[in-house]
Amino acid sequence: MVGFAVVAPKFTPHDQNMKTMRTMSIILMVSRLCLAVEYGSILWHVRKYKKQVLPMMLQIGLNFALAMIYLGITFRFTDHNSNVFMTWYVLAGVEVILTFAIAYIFPVLSFQGTHLMKRIGLLTVIIVGDGIITISKSVVTIVESPDAWNASTIGIVTAAATTIYAVFLIYFDWMKNPYLPKFRQQLWTLLHYPLHLALCLFIQGFTQLVIWTKIFDVFKHLNSSSVLLDNTSLMAKATTKMIVDELQKVVTKFFETYTPQYITTWNTADAALKNISTINDTFWPQVVKYSDTNLDKDYPDEKDYQTFVDAMVGLMSAMENALLETFKINLAKEVDDENKSKGIQQTDSGFESELNEKMWVRFQLIFNYTYIAAGISLILMVSLAVISRTKPWSKWAITRHILFTLLGLSTSLVALIRYSATRSAEYQQSPWMIPTITIVWLIVLVLTHIRNPPPLFFQGSQSLWSRKKNNQQTYDYVMPTEGQTAYKGAPSTQVRSSV
């Protein structure tokens, strides 16, 4: 674990460091050799039981073979990038499959009666708990920005924390039974791998949406505070110098609040204002008239109009980038490295424009995978609940699980809104981007705790508010069998009192 922590900061498969990649491979080799030694020590203690030698030798051989393959891979890493690192992932999958196969065939290596399911549950707690940490970091980022707290921000943070808490409650409400038959236990364990991947994507993306929702809130409440720019009748009488002076005041005030982190942002804003200053004074009354009539005969000078549009696009890109950088959304190094690798030289305004475009593309990616991962997480949790269920299925239980699956599917399908640019922008800039996910998980949580089905849909069922007349428990407590808890050592007849 210490080795992974040391290697992780420089582990970049697209820009490989030979020492880092070799160290990673050696760490994997040593870990498998340690497992081989551990199984060897167990084999020594059970050497008198001949039937247990074969499974132990198979497990030792598997780990030793994997260690040797990792050792061989080590020397394939050179000063150039290589795809050989993908072998690690293939070997990890092969190891899991073979380990579970051996455990299924040979009872001595079976996971039954062990704490495997509890340990998997604790790993899920760590992943969900990390969501609270990342939300806290997002809140810190928001608080460090100007005009941090308002009603919208409080609602966003509350919804985010509620969602993580609901996921936590739902998981442990559904995963009550730590003892399952052999095949179901292995299937339950293997399904946790995609669940953990989905939860990681969901939680990380969800916390990013917290920041993006705050950014949209800032955009919504932006005000130029300029009488001239907000009044078309005054703009029609203005000169180019007056317009440039007003824009300069707006930009200066904005940059005082959201200070740019790169000189290219300042240069782009200055260049945009200089370009606007070249526009003829007759342009302003004409453009105001055209905006009112939208007639071709009132169309302003084409060259001045194009200059104005290009300048405003550059100015808005610079201001948006400054705002996004304030909230620690920064792709400048990524864009710069990409341009250098391709030998592309850009002007400051071109760089800011590309940077702005990539930031919005990144947001769209985050939005899509957050909703998709949220839905997949719910569907996988339903699958795990079905696998781990030990009590008989009632009509209400079947209906609930179908509803949960449909809710998960519907949540994932929200990502399809990207194919409608207008509706996508309206939804993403509305206050409902985060609360929608929160509401889905809260509905699941409430339905989970409705033990009696509604009489309206299930004939003869009890009312939601009625209680059972007898003292029978409504929960199904599944206890381990005597064989799972009995002491396997010396018989009781051989145990003597030490008194």
TrEMBL record:
Q: Does the keyword Transmembrane helix apply?
A: yes
For whether the record's keyword set contains Membrane, the answer is yes
The record's keywords, sorted A to Z, are: Membrane, Transmembrane, Transmembrane helix
Q: What residues form the membrane-spanning segments?
A: 26-46, 53-73, 85-109, 121-143, 149-172, 193-212, 366-387, 399-420, 432-450
PANTHER family named in the record: CHROMOSOME 16, WHOLE GENOME SHOTGUN SEQUENCE (PTHR42101), LOW TEMPERATURE REQUIREMENT A (PTHR42101:SF1)
Write the protein's name: Uncharacterized protein
Taxonomic lineage of the native organism: Eukaryota, Fungi, Dikarya, Ascomycota, Pezizomycotina
